[in-house]
Amino acid sequence: MSPTFLKPDRRLSLLVSPDLAVTLPDQMQRRIDTALAALQPSIIEEVHQRIAEIYGQVNGASDLSDRDLDTIHAHAHELRGICGTVGMPVPGGIADALCAYIEDLRASGLFPRANIVWLHITSLKRAAEEDDAAPAIGTYLIDSLRALRTKELKAGMPDADPQDQE
Amino acid sequence: MSEHSFSRIHLLVVEDNMFMRNLYSAILRAMEFEQIQMASDGSEAFELMRDFPPDIIITDAAMQPLDGFDFVRLVRTARDSPNPLVPIIMVTGYHNRASVERARDVGVNEYLAKPVTPAGLYSHIVQVITKPRPFVRTNSYFGPDRRRRMSSNYAGPYRRAADAQIGPPTYRQAQARGLLKLRPHGLFADRHAHDRVIDARKPRRTALLEWEAGQ
Questions:
Q1: Average pLDDT for A7-24
Q2: Residue A39: which of B33, B118, B95, B8 has the closest Cα?
Q3: For a disulfide at B93, which of A43, A48, A135, B114, Cβ 3.0-4.6 Å?
Q4: Cβ–Cβ of B30/A22 closer than 8 Å?
Q5: Segment A24-78, tens digit of pLDDT
Q6: Closest approach of B198 to chain A, Cα-based (Å)
Q7: Residue B39 scores a pLDDT above 70
Q8: Chain A residues with CB inside 8 Å of B30's CB?
Q9: Pairing of strands B110-113, B56-59
């Protein structure tokens, strides 16, 4: 079957001003900044609550079930989205590293280890508590956690292509 | 910038996280969107589309019970879909290539990785409004054209039977349309792009040699 093409619908462009700016106008950016500043405290409180929730789940636990990991992954997935948006890049990066750790190990048929999950979450907790944490140290921490994930993948799957594990 | 430039656009945001919904609401209202509806997963959004026909959908990927990918597939291909052609922007924390390709293959128009920035969201919204892509229907796909660029130097592989018609004109077509002229050194050239036009269905080198041999 040859592909059938439908012409693009131009209706939406008729609903907006003809002088629609290609990039976000400054005036709009200022309004957004004001709106986000008003929302930020409640979102940051939510971030802390979620971190406390998953920290409580892993702290002192010697084993994690699949269901525990699902919950932790779901929270970490939310945190990586929220943190970056509200100006918490280090916790966002750690949450991203935690998601990658759980996803990649599971995809490789390995089971994420409780102590490494704990290390991610305790780092996440600490980074969220430290407003003045140096970004360089945060980046170093995120890189270290990612290196740990790669090391574990290599140990679990020594024959795998190293590029797949990056 | 005129006031209320987006006020007539109906926007549907599909996001399961309440705080992200509030964040979207704050950003989009500051952008002067006035018609915004929120849904917490794909199935709720699909139902909502009947009462609130959206002009643009912004959806998360990871949701329960119906995730963003299945929701987009449903919108594009379900018999009872209220609007299979609606532009869809997927905003997600999944950054890997597989997720981007999956989003593309279910029919997402634009893909935006979290964290959401107002500037990024704005530019993707403007993109779907001002530069809508044609839709393609094949045996296995219905959605926006996944080819964003046309290259006159592309030499295959060709995946569509009609590729020679979609891409640059073939030599004969170009000749018939008067797009070719004889250069002093004996090669025909595209009058506008100053680029040689060859039969795009053959590997470039072979076609060029045959063409030169025929001059």
A1: 87
A2: B118
A3: B114
A4: no
A5: 999 999 999 999 999 989 988 989 999 999 999 888 788 889 999 999 998 998 8
A6: 23
A7: yes
A8: 28, 31-32, 34-35
A9: unpaired
Q: Return the C-alpha torsion angle A22, A28, A30, A35, nearest 10.
A: -130
Using the Cβ of A59 and the Cβ atoms of chain B, whether some distance falls under 8 Å is answered with: no
Tell me the whole-structure pTM to 2 decimals. 0.72
Residue with token string 């280890």: A113
> A82 vs B145: CB contact, 8 Å cut-off?
no
Cα–Cα distance, B41 to A144 (Å, whole number): 35
Read off φ and ψ for residue A32, nearest 5 degrees.
-65, -45
CB B137 within 8 A of CB B116: no
B134 vs A: CB within 8 A: yes
Q: What superfamily in CATH does domain A25-165 come from?
A: HPT domain (1.20.120.160)
Q: How many residues does chain B have?
A: 215
Radius of gyration of chain B (CA): 22
CA distance B61 to B71: 9
